[in-house]
Amino acid sequence: MTVQKPVAVVTGGAAGIGWEIGRRLAADGHLVIAADRVPGLTGSGEDAGILWRELDVTDPAAVDRVFSGIEAEFGPIAVLVNNAGIQRHRGIEDLSWEEWTAVVDVNLHGVFACLQAAGRRMLEHGGGRIVNISSVSSRGSAGRAPYATTKAAVIGLTATAGAEWAARGVRVNAVAPGYVDTGVFRHGVEAGTLDLGTILSRIPAKRLGDATEIAAAVSFLVSDQAAYMNGQTLYVDGGFMVDY
Ligand code: NDP
């Protein structure tokens, strides 16, 4: 008899942190679908059977269509990880409207579209788990206004959805990573708004995070061990948020 695996959708799961989250959830026993605008899977290492579906999270109609297709093919979405995110690096006075809206579209509107589309389905199916990826930049980050703003908004949305759906079996929590050597961080270093030496001096653990350490927190939050957690944000940052 084939045992049906719970379906986990990871947005932006083709690369970086999302890729490692997918690998961890697959190892935990999920059927993982990386929903990404990047064609195919570009993360390194054994892919653990992760499937890919094309999705641009800024298009709510596409989100609905892709989620319906996934459910028709594989069964109810049990887990959503809202991981897709982008950066634009510029001071507020020089930031263009296009740069502002590009980040808000992916990091906030995209997160809401996926949370709502998956949440509605989970409520219908009687339960589910959602993890939104925020950031330590949610406390404010010079040169990255839209990024910091959207990552703070994600914490508010997480708390609100966590409270609204707690009694109906849908748990919503967030993970706020510190600095990890993947796409979003590398763009900052290349753009000159993130300086590796300065950052390392401000991290009590004196090292960058590893994507597998972010994935471990997501794995915990979607597991039954976190059954009493709703609306929370877990910081995985080597102590960065401590006043140090
Ligand atoms: P990456 O750029 O390595 O991976 C993000 C993936 O999401 C890429 O494949 C990207 O595609 C995809 N993506 C971007 N926009 C969309 C979209 N509209 N629809 C679907 N997929 C999209 O980023 P990271 O792994 O570094 O970051 C992952 C998450 O972690 C982000 O939310 C980020 O903000 C957060 N984070 C990262 C930190 C870090 O230090 N790296 C620290 C704190 C939080 P494309 O390449 O085309 O953009």
Automatic annotation (TrEMBL):
<dbReference type="InterPro" id="IPR002347">
    <property type="entry name" value="SDR_fam"/>
</dbReference>
<dbReference type="Pfam" id="PF13561">
    <property type="entry name" value="adh_short_C2"/>
</dbReference>
<feature type="domain" description="Ketoreductase">
    <location>
        <begin position="6"/>
        <end position="178"/>
    </location>
</feature>
<dbReference type="InterPro" id="IPR036291">
    <property type="entry name" value="NAD(P)-bd_dom_sf"/>
</dbReference>
<dbReference type="InterPro" id="IPR057326">
    <property type="entry name" value="KR_dom"/>
</dbReference>
<protein>
    <submittedName>
        <fullName>SDR family oxidoreductase</fullName>
    </submittedName>
</protein>
<dbReference type="InterPro" id="IPR020904">
    <property type="entry name" value="Sc_DH/Rdtase_CS"/>
</dbReference>
<comment type="similarity">
    <text>Belongs to the short-chain dehydrogenases/reductases (SDR) family.</text>
</comment>
